[in-house]
Automatic annotation (TrEMBL):
SUPFAM superfamilies: MurD-like peptide ligases, catalytic domain (SSF53623), MurD-like peptide ligases, peptide-binding domain (SSF53244). PANTHER family: UDP-N-ACETYLMURAMOYL-TRIPEPTIDE--D-ALANYL-D-ALANINE LIGASE (PTHR43024:SF1). It comes from marine metagenome. This is UDP-MurNAc-pentapeptide synthetase. GO terms for molecular function: acid-amino acid ligase activity; ATP binding. The lineage of its organism: unclassified sequences, metagenomes, ecological metagenomes.
């Protein structure tokens, strides 16, 4: 699909943010996902620009064979555009310094999630490739508004709800757990998850691994909606989580009932799942008057 779309659009700039275990129901393996995404870089001419995440080894591997100019970005590895001195500002987002080739640019990002730092760096790399001045890039990022169901923060009954229900895969679930852990919370932390879809034969195993990983974070309650997510709960309990602080639900209403029974002022809930899991319905029911 990417190859055909690129033939139509004939892009001059191609951006790959990461390559993860998504779309496996169709592509079967991570290497095939890599190959499919690599069609974007393959479509670029020598006059084009490939924007490359230097912290993602599969993206970096693709960049070795592109004809276009390569511009790298990242946090941990050497990159043309690199985030440094990252300071979390609670619900206000991040303050950081970005080394933009030979310039240092202070940046404020008004949203949660370290993954969004990567997105901002990719946007900066694209902006530079288009000739946009650093001050204009800085202003644009400062005024950016995320799309609905992506790290939206609301308050309800003294509790904080972080709505990241737009989509999910194993890597983004890990990022969500980090975000919930790092969020300044006076009370307890609830991780409210729906199924991760399109994982093919790895679906059950991926949910079981996620359940084990959840116990490595300071998560007080785990609430799961869906048959696949139930495997995460079973795995979390097997890894030491108190069964009384978990719930499995076949539909959103049961999950909402459990949350309402246990949530207290000062608690923080993060809600996430694949698009088909429609986990925004949990948020809507929790915040309904």
């Amino acid at each position: 699909e990417i190859k055909r779309l690129a033939e139509i659009a004939q892009p001059e700039i191609g951006v790959l943010t990461n390559i993860t275990e998504g779309h496996l129901v169709h592509l079967k393996t991570l290497k095939k996902v890599q190959a499919a995404k690599g069609e974007l870089y393959d479509s670029l001419s020598e006059q084009g620009t490939a924007i490359v995440n230097a912290d993602d080894p599969l993206v970096l591997e693709l960049a070795k064979s592109v004809r276009a100019k390569v511009v790298t970005y990242g946090i941990h590895n050497k990159a043309d555009i690199k985030a440094e001195n990252i300071n979390r500002m609670g619900r206000e987002g991040f303050n950081l310094s970005v080394r933009l080739f030979d310039k240092n640019v202070p940046i404020h990002l008004p949203f949660l999630g370290e993954c969004n730092i990567y997105n901002a760096l990719a946007a900066m790399a694209t902006g530079c490739s288009l000739g946009i001045e650093p001050d204009n890039i800085k202003a644009g990022l400062r005024n950016t508004k995320l799309l609905p169901n992506r790290y939206e923060i609301t308050k309800q009954g003294g509790a904080t709800i972080i709505n990241d229900s737009y989509n999910a895969n194993p890597r983004s679930m890990q990022e969500a757990l980090k975000t919930l852990t790092n969020y300044q919370c006076e009370g307890r932390r609830f991780f409210v998850m729906g199924d991760m879809l399109e994982l093919g034969d790895l679906a059950e195993l991926a949910h079981m691994k996620l359940g084990t990983d959840i116990t490595k974070y300071p998560i007080d309650y785990l609430v799961a909606v869906g048959e696949l997510s139930a495997h995460a709960v079973k795995s979390a309990i097997a890894s030491g989580m108190d069964k009384k602080q978990t719930a499995t639900a076949s539909e959103h209403g049961c999950a909402v009932a459990f949350i309402k029974k246990h949530v207290l002022p000062g608690d923080c809930l993060l809600v996430k799942g694949s698009r088909g899991s429609r986990m925004e319905e949990v948020v809507e029911r929790l915040t309904a008057c």
